[in-house]
Amino acid sequence: MEAAFTDLGARRVTANTMAVNTGSRRVMEKAGLRFVRSYTGDWPEAIPGSEHGEVEYALTAPGPAPHPAPDPAPAGPDLAPQG
């Protein structure tokens, strides 16, 4: 996880698995990810257990989020250079 935040500059790491896949869920938790939500997907080929839905886990980088860049001023006729 540290490499995702330091080397790659990620702000958030997410992982998904089937709700019934307790082994994968435990690995995500041991890696520091926390449960975010349950959801259902419309998969073209359902596999056993998919009727119970999916789960999403996530981990956000420590520290404050970077400030977004300000929007550039809109160009218009009153902002055109004079000369």
UniProtKB/TrEMBL annotation:
Residues 1-34 form the N-acetyltransferase domain. Coiled coil: none annotated. Residues 63-75 have a biased composition (Pro residues). It comes from the Bacteria. Residues 58-83 are annotated as: Disordered. This is N-acetyltransferase domain-containing protein.
